[in-house]
Amino acid sequence: MYQDIILEHYKAKHHSGLREPYQAQVAHVNPTCGDEVLLRVALDGDRVTDVSYEGVGCSISQASTSVMTDLVIGKTVAEALALHAEFTEMMHSMGSAEPDEDRLEDAVAFVGVAQFPARVKCALLGWSAFKDATAQALAATGAGEEQQ
Amino acid sequence: MPEPLRALKLTEPPVAPVTDGYDVERIREDFPILRRTVGRWPLVYLDSANTSQKPVQVVDALEDHYLQHNANVARAMHTLGGEATEAFEGARTKVADFIGAAGPQEIVFTKNATEALNLVAHSLGGRLSVGDEIVISVLEHHSNIVPWQLLAQRTGAVLRWFDITPDGRLDLEAAAAHHLINERTRIVSVAWVSNVLGTVNPITEIAAMAHRVGAHVVVDGSQGVPQLPTDVAALGADLMAFTGHKMLGPTGIGVLWGRYELLDTLPPFLAGGEMIEVVRLSGSTFAPPPRRFEAGTPPIAQAVGLGAAIDYLNGVGMENIAAHEQRITAYALSRLSGIDGVGIIGPKQAVDRGGAISFTLATADGLEVHPHDVMQLLDSHGIAVRGGHHCARPLHDRVGIGASSRASGYLYTTLAEIDALADGLTYVRDFFGGKR
Fold first, then answer.
1. Dist. CA B344–CA B399, nearest whole Å
2. How many domains are contained in chain A?
3. CATH (domain of A34)
4. Neighbours of A92 (CB within 10 A)
C-alpha cells in the first residue's frame, strides 16, 4: 500500500499551509487515531480557486490530502465533488476498483489502501474536510449574494 | 548507543537469566493462535494490553459450558439450571479469591471495565452535588475520564486531575501543592497501571490521602489485575473495575469489586430482572449486592470462561507472570532505547512499571513516522502492535504528541519476539528515512 507516490506526497505536502482568502474553514479529525486536518476552501463563483490546510497524521491521511488539493484546485465545484465521489467509491471498494487514472491521477495510488478497512478513514480525511468546507463556502457565498 | 547494545545482546543479554523455571515455550503450546502466520511471517503478538490471547483451556471451558451445561442462571430450577448457576457462581468465587476480596458477594459481573466504571459513576456519583470534586489523572483511559465528565455535567461537581512528572509518573508533589485532594473531594478514580506509559501508580498512598478527607477511591484495574498479584485489601481502594478479556478470558465479561459495606449502600444502575426483590407497579425493592447491579441475563458462559482463565493464571502463578512481564519489559526497554529514532514515552526503567511500552519513531532526517504507518509496516512483517492514542487522548496532548505506537507483551511473550520488534522498527525507520 505504501506506493512511492504516497510517500512523495507525504513528504512534499502540496498546497499545505493556511492561506487567505477563504470562505470556509473546517477542522476534521479521525477519532480513532487523532489524525487532524484544518482546511480552508476559497471559491470564485463556482470554481475552486484554493484549498489550503494544516494537518497532522499518518502518511496516508497527509498524502491523500495533498493529492486531493492537486486534483480539485482550478476545477468547478461540480467537477471537484464528482472527483470526491469517485475517490470515496474507490476507497470503499475493498481494493477491487479499477480507477480511472485520467481522472483521479495520483489518487489511484490509494486503491491499495482500500484493502485495509482500518486505513480507509485516513485516506478520506482530507477529502471529507474538502466536501464539508465547500458546502459551507457555497452557503456563505450564496448568503452573501442574497444580501446584495 | 545502538552499536554497543547490539554487541551486548549477542554476548550478554541485558536481562537476568531465567532462574524461576518459567517455561514460556510450554505456555505457548496452550495458545494455538501463536503458531499461526500473518502472510508468510510468524505472528508476533505484542498487543496484549489491548486484548490478550486465549489458551485452549478457556475456549474448552466455554465449549463445555455451551454444549453440556447451558441454561439460564438463578431462575431455571432444573438440573441444567442448577449446573449453570453453580458454574456462574463458582466463577464469582474464583474472581473473589483471585483479587483477595472478602467474598463472592463483593464481585459484580458487568460486560467490561467500562460498564463497571459507568456503574460507579452513576450509583456512587448520584450522591454528588454542586461544588463537590472528582479527582482523576491525566493518564487515564477514556473509560475513566468520560463517565466522570458526564457525572460532573449532571451534578455540577468539578472534575480535577493529577498531572504527571516528566518521566511519566503521577506528580504527587504538585497535587499536594495545589491541594488537589481536599475536603471537597468526594471521589478519586485512577488507573492502577497506565495502559500507555506502563506506570504503576501508588494506589495505596493515594487511597490513604483520599480516605483522610472522606473520599471514596475507585481503581481502574484493567491493566493491573492481568499482570500483578492482586490484593484489594492491600491496595486500599473502595471499588475496582477490571475486564476479563485482557487476562486470558473471553470478551463480554467485566468485574466491579467493591467493599460490601459500600456496595450495600449504592442504588441500582441498570434495572430489570434479577436485580429486584419485590416488584409491584407502585414500586420495587432491590436485591442485595451483587445481584442489585446485575440486571437481566448476565454473561454466563463468559463468566465461566473467566473462571477458567483465572485457573490458568493461578496454575502459572501470578508472581511468576509478574516476574516474566518484568523480564520482557526490561529487555524491550533496553532494546528499544538502543534504536536511533525511538523515543520511549513513560518510565524508561522496569521499576514500578507494567508491560505496555509506548514510543515514537523518527527517521534519520527527522521525520516522525506516524504510529499508523509504524503499525501497518510492522503488521506486514507479522508484528501486531497498536498505533494511535490508545483511548488516552488527554495523556498524548499532555506530552505534546498526537499519537504513539505501543507494544505490550504478556505471559506468552518471548525475548525473540522483542528482537523481532526491534528489527521491525529499524526496518520501518529506514523505509521512511529513504534507505530503501
1. 12
2. 1
3. 3.90.1010.10
4. 12
How many folded domains does chain B comprise?
2
pLDDT of residue B77: 79
Q: Spell out which chain B residues touch chain A, with contact meaning CB-CB distance below 8 angstroms.
A: 367, 369-373, 376-377, 387-389, 393, 396, 402-403, 431-432
Average pLDDT over residues A64-92: 96
Based on the fold, state whether residues B10 and B129 are members of the same structural domain.
no
> Could you report the predicted ipTM of this complex, rounded to two decimals?
0.71
Residues B66 and B183 in one domain: yes
Structural domain boundaries, residue B386: 2-30+318-432
Instruction: Name the percent of chain B lying above pLDDT 90.
Output: 81
Say if strands A24-30 and A35-44 run parallel, antiparallel, or are unpaired. antiparallel
B391 is catalytic: yes
- pTM summary value: 0.87
Q: Has residue A129 been placed in a domain?
A: yes
CB B312 within 8 A of CB B58: yes
Residues of chain B with pLDDT under 70: 1-19, 434-436
10 Å CB burial of residue A25 (0-12, 13-18, 19+) is: middle
Q: Which domain covers residue A14, as residue numbers?
A: 4-138
Q: Which residues of A touch B (CB under 8 A)?
A: 1-2, 7, 11, 32-36, 56-60, 116, 119, 122
Q: Is B350 inside any structural domain?
A: yes
Q: Specify the pLDDT at position A147.
A: 39
- Report if residue A78 sits inside a domain: yes
Answer for the pair A126, A65: CB distance below 8 angstroms, yes or no: yes
- Asked if A35's CB is within 8 angstroms of B371's CB, the reply is no
